[in-house]
Amino acid sequence: MMKSKRLKNVAAQRLARLLMFTTLIASGTAHAETLQSALSAAYLNNPNLNAQRAATRATDENVPKATAGYRPTVTASGQSGLQNSEVHSNGTNGWTNTTTNTIPTTIGVTVQQNLWNGQRTDNSVRQAESGVLAQRETLRNTEQNVFQDGVTYYMNVLRDSAIYHLQGNNVEVLQEQLRQTQDRFKVGEVTRTDVAQAQAGLAKGQSDKLVAESNLKTSMANFRLVVGKQPAKLEPVKPASVGVPKSLDEAIRISQIEHPAIQASLHGVDSANLNVKVLEGSLYPTVNLVGQVQRGYDTVSNQSGSRSWVASIMGQISVPIYDGGLSTASIRQAKELAGQQELQTDYQRDQVRAAVVSSWGVLSNSKAVVEAAQSQVNASEIALNGVREEAKVGQRTTLDVLNAQQTLLNARVSLVTAQRDRVVASYALLSAIGRLSAGNLGLRAARYDATTHFDQVKDKWYGLRTPDGR
C-alpha cells in the first residue's frame, strides 16, 4: 500500500510538471527570447531576405541603364602604323622607282546624341520603373515568407520542446510504474504478464522520447536557418490580433488590394505592355546628331610630314524598311507575353484568395480545437485517476493503467499541438492578406528602405562603385 501511495505521489508530481509544459504557450517565462526579437534577427540576418534586397538594388540599375538613351555617347578613336609605297613611273630618263615610308596617325572624338527613336527611350524608362516597383513587391513578399517561416519554426520549437518534456516525464512515470509492478509481482499481487506489460509500456515511452528529441532537433535547425541563431528560452506567444480582419469578406477584400504577390504581378503587366511599345518603336525612324573631330599626322622618312584637322556635325536618319520579319515577330511575341502576364495575375488573385479562405478557416476553428483538446486532457486526467484507484482493488489491470496514461499523454500532446496551430494560423492569415510586415509586427529593427538605393543611382551618369562601397 505504501508503494501504491508512492507511485500516486510521484505520478501526481510528474503530471503537474506535464501540465506546466502543456501550458507553456499560455504563460510566460523570465528572461526569454520573444517572437519579436527572433523575427527582428531574421529581418536583419536572413540570407534569403538579404539576397532579395541585393536583387532589388540590382533591379534599380535598370533605370539609369534606360535613361542612358537620353544622354550622348562619346567615343575616342585612334590609329597609327607603318605604310610603305612604291611608285614606278616612266619619264624622259626612263623608268624610275620611288619608295616612300610614312607613319600615318589619326586620332579623333565622336559625339552622338539621339534626337528621336520612336519613343523607345521613354517607354524603356517607364518599363524599368515598373520593374523596380515589381521587384519591391517581390521583396515584400519574400519578407512575409521569411516572417511566416520564422513564426512557424519558433512555434515548432515550443511545441516540440513541450512534447519532448512530456515524453521524458512519461518515461519517468512509466519507470516508477514498472518498479511498483515488479514489487507487487514479488509479493504475488500481480502476474508476470503485468510486469511484461509495464516493460513494454516503458520501451514504447522511451522510443517516443527519442522520436520527440529528433523532432526537436529538426525544429531547432530550421529555426536557426531562418533566424540565424540557435533558439534559447523561447517565450510563449499569443495569437496575432493587430491587423487581423473581422470577417472573411473583409480579409478577401484586403488581400486583393494589399498582397505583394498581386501587386508585383500587376506591375509585371505594366512592364509587359511597355515592352510591346518599346519593340514597336523599332519600326519608326531613328534621328541622331553626330559631331566628330579628327586630327591626322603623316610623317615621311623621319621628316616632318603633313597634318590635317577635320571637324564636322551632321544629322543622321535611319529608316527601317525590312529586317526579314524579325521586328514584327518580336512584337507579336511580346503581345502574347503581355496577355500571359494578365492571365497569370488573375491566377495569382485566385491563389491569394484561396490562401485567405484556408487560413481563415483554420483560425476560426482553432479556438474550438484548443478548447476541445483541453477538455480531453481534463477528462483523461479524471479517467487515469479512476483507473488507478480501480487497479488497487483488482478491478483494473496494469494494461488498463498504461492505456489510460497513454491516452492522457496523447491528449496533452494534442493540446500543445492545437495551441501551436492556433498561433501559426493567425500569422498565416496576416501573410495571406499581405500584412505580415515589420511595421505591423512592431519589430525593433532598423527598417530597410528600398527607395534609398534607388534615389542614389537613378540619376548617376558614371561611376563604378556601388553606393554601399563595392
Description:
The protein has 470 residues and is an alpha+beta fold. It has helices at residues 2-22, 35-45, 47-60, 62-67, 120-186, 192-227, 248-258, 260-280, 326-392, 398-433, 438-441, 450-457, and strands at residues 73-80, 83-91, 94-116, 286-300, 303-318. A hairpin with a 2-residue loop joins strand 4 and strand 5. The protein starts with a helix and ends in a 13-residue tail after the last helix. The model is unreliable at 1-5, 7-12 and 14-30 (pLDDT under 50).
Shape: elongated
- How many domain modules? 2
Q: In angstroms, what separates the terminal alpha carbons? A: 78 Å
Output the CATH class name of the largest domain: Mainly Alpha
**Mean pLDDT across residues:** 87
Query: What composes the largest sheet?
Result: 5 strands, antiparallel
Return the CATH architecture of the largest domain. Up-down Bundle
Name the CATH homologous superfamily of the largest domain: Outer membrane efflux proteins (OEP)
CATH topology descriptor of the largest domain? Outer membrane efflux proteins (OEP)
Question: What is the helix tally?
Answer: 12
Features:
2 domains, alpha+beta, 5 strands, 470 residues, 5-stranded antiparallel beta sheet
Write the layout of secondary structure elements.
Layout: H1 2-22, H2 35-45, H3 47-60, H4 62-67, E1 73-80, E2 83-91, E3 94-116, H5 120-186, H6 192-227, H7 248-258, H8 260-280, E4 286-300, E5 303-318, H9 326-392, H10 398-433, H11 438-441, H12 450-457
Antiparallel strand pairs: 1-3, 2-3, 3-4, 4-5
